[in-house]
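Hey, resending since the last one bounced:
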Amino acid sequence: MSDLVLLLVTGLGLGALYFIAASGLSLIYGLMGVLNFAHGAFMTAGAYAAWLTMGALPPDWPVVVRLLVGIVAAVVVGAVVGLVVEVVLIRPLYRRHIQQVLVTVGLSLAGVAAAQGIWGADPRAVVKPVWMGGTTDVLGARLPNDRFVYVLVAGVLFIGLLALLHLTRLGLVIRAGVENRTMVEALGIDVHRTFTVVFALGGAAAGLAGVLYSQYAGAVSPAQGGSLLIFAFIVVVIGGMGSLTGTAVAAVVVGLVQQLANYYAASGVGDLSVVLLLALVLLLRPTSLKGATA
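The C-alpha cells again:
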C-alpha cells in the first residue's frame, strides 16, 4: 500500500511538472497556431536565470527566499525572451508554418550552444530548501515534499490560465482574434500586441517550468530544457493540440504511467511506455494533432 501511495504521489508530481512545461506550449499553439520548438530554450533560460539570481543573493538569506526571488527572475526572463522572439522572429512568419518550425528549431539549437559556451556543458548544482528536500509520512509512505509544491503550482497555473482566457477582456480578445482576426482588427484592436502577450505568457510559464525542473533534478544544464520539451510535446499531443484542459489531464496520465511502468516493469520502461501511449492515442484519435482552445 505504501509503495502504491508513493508511486501515485510522485507520478502526480512529475505530471505537474510536465503540465507546467506544456501549458505555455499548448497556449501558444492553441491560440496562435505556432508550434514553438524553441520552448525548451525558454525553459533553459529560466533555469539559468534562477540559478544566477540565487547565486548572486546574499548567502545568509534563507534558501526559500532566494528560491522565490529566483522564480520571479525566471518568469520575467522567460516572458522577455518570449516577447522578443515573437516580435523579431515569429511575427513576420505568421501563417508560414514551415518557416516557423525551421526558425524555432534553429533558435533551440542556438540556445543550447550559447548556454554551453557561457557556462559549460556540465550540470551546475542548485540549492534546494531543506523542507523541499525532506519527506512527509502519509499512510506509511515517505513522500517527497517537493512533489506537493509542483502539484500546487500546477493547480494554481491551470486555474489562472483558464480564468485569464474566460473571465477577462484580454482572454476574450485573444479567443476572438483566433476565430476572426480580420473582424477584431476592424474593431480597432491591435491583434499583434495581443498575440505578443500570449507569447510572453507562454515564455513566462516556460521559465517557471525551467526553475522547478532544476529543483527536481538538483542541477541546471544546457540540455535540460530540450529533455523536458520532449515530454511536454507528448503531453500536448495526447491532450489535444492547444487544449489546456486536455493538456492537464494528459500530463497526469503521462506522469503516472511513467512512474508505474518504471517501478513494476523495469527502470527506463516508463519512457517507452509514454511513447507507446502517444502512438496509441494517435492511432485511435488522430484529431489530437488538430488545434483546440482551453
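The longest strand covers residues 135-138.

Sorry for the duplicate.
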